[in-house]
Automatic annotation (TrEMBL), chain A:
Pfam families: Tim17 (PF02466). The keyword Mitochondrion applies. It is found in: Mitochondrion inner membrane. It comes from the Eukaryota. Component of the TIM22 complex. The chain crosses the membrane at residues 12-31. Belongs to the Tim17/Tim22/Tim23 family. This is Mitochondrial import inner membrane translocase subunit TIM22.
Automatic annotation (TrEMBL), chain B:
Keywords: Chaperone, Disulfide bond, Membrane, Metal-binding, Mitochondrion, Mitochondrion inner membrane, Protein transport, Translocation, Transport, Zinc. Heterohexamer. Coiled coil: none annotated. Belongs to the small Tim family. This is Mitochondrial import inner membrane translocase subunit.
Length: 143, 101
């Protein structure tokens, strides 16, 4: 029996890693817009010297991937912790744990945008969690 | 033949061994029942993975604790009723009045 704290920590770390990779990928696709350097006028990135382009690009990629990593890590840790807690309380292992945890996580993520947005977030995240759980619990085909 | 205490004969060593054997059999029987009942109730039958999930482990903890509790309570009740019945039988056989009504 793994403890809920261990599960939360592992999910947080995994989410952080995945979020970092995802952020790096997204950052590499965002260079078609003019790039603003601090204080200076708008200058497209292709007009800067080679080395500065590289350093600006890497710094931007690092910032984006770090922020995405933090977000994913928070979501992963929150979802995993809540699901483990609900499963421990109910003493049952079925899909209701994932759905309830998804609703809670979705509502928490959307809490700043008002109660309606929280309800929509709850429903959306719960549906997503239900879909993933259903796929993972499909009986394997016997070969 | 001398009697120590209040006159009840002490159990012989064969009786003591039989008593311990009985208790061992009772414990083994209780263990088997508990395993069967709690795993039927708590463990998912599809066996998707070999490790116990957290819900299943918590369920097994609670099931075995309750099983022990119930077993102990019923055992105490049986003991109480047996001693009452023996006392009533002993008192009734010796005197005439007694506890049995």
């Amino acid at each position: 029996m793994e403890s809920c704290y261990v599960k939360t920590a592992m999910s947080g770390v995994a989410g952080f890693g995945l979020g970092g990779l995802f952020g790096m990928f997204m950052a590499s696709m965002a260079y078609d817009t003019p790039y603003h350097t601090a204080g200076a006028a708008v200058s497209p990135i292709s007009s800067m010297p080679w080395r500065q382009q590289l350093s600006t690009g890497f710094r931007d990629m690092g910032k984006r991937s770090y922020s995405t990593a933090k977000n994913f890590g928070k979501v992963g840790a929150l979802f995993s912790g809540v699901e483990c807690g609900i499963e421990g309380l109910r003493a049952k292992n079925d899909m209701g744990n994932g759905i309830a945890a998804g609703c809670f996580t979705g509502a928490i993520l959307a809490r700043n945008a008002g109660p309606q947005a929280a309800a929509v977030g709850c429903a959306g995240f719960a549906a997503f969690s239900a879909a993933i759980d259903a796929w993972m619990r499909m009986p394997k085909d016997e070969d | 033949m001398s009697f120590f205490g209040l006159g009840r004969p002490q159990p012989t060593s064969a009786e003591k061994i039989a008593a311990v054997e009985n208790e061992l059999k009772m414990m083994a029987d209780m263990h088997n029942r508990m395993t069967r009942v709690c795993s039927a109730k708590c463990v998912d039958k599809t066996y998707r993975e070999s490790d116990l999930a957290k819900g299943e482990a918590v369920c097994l903890d609670r099931c075995s604790a309750k099983f022990f509790d119930v077993h102990a309570k019923i055992f105490d009740q049986i003991q109480k009723e047996t001693t009452e019945r023996m006392a009533a039988a002993g008192g009734g056989g010796g005197g005439g009045g007694g506890f049995g009504m």
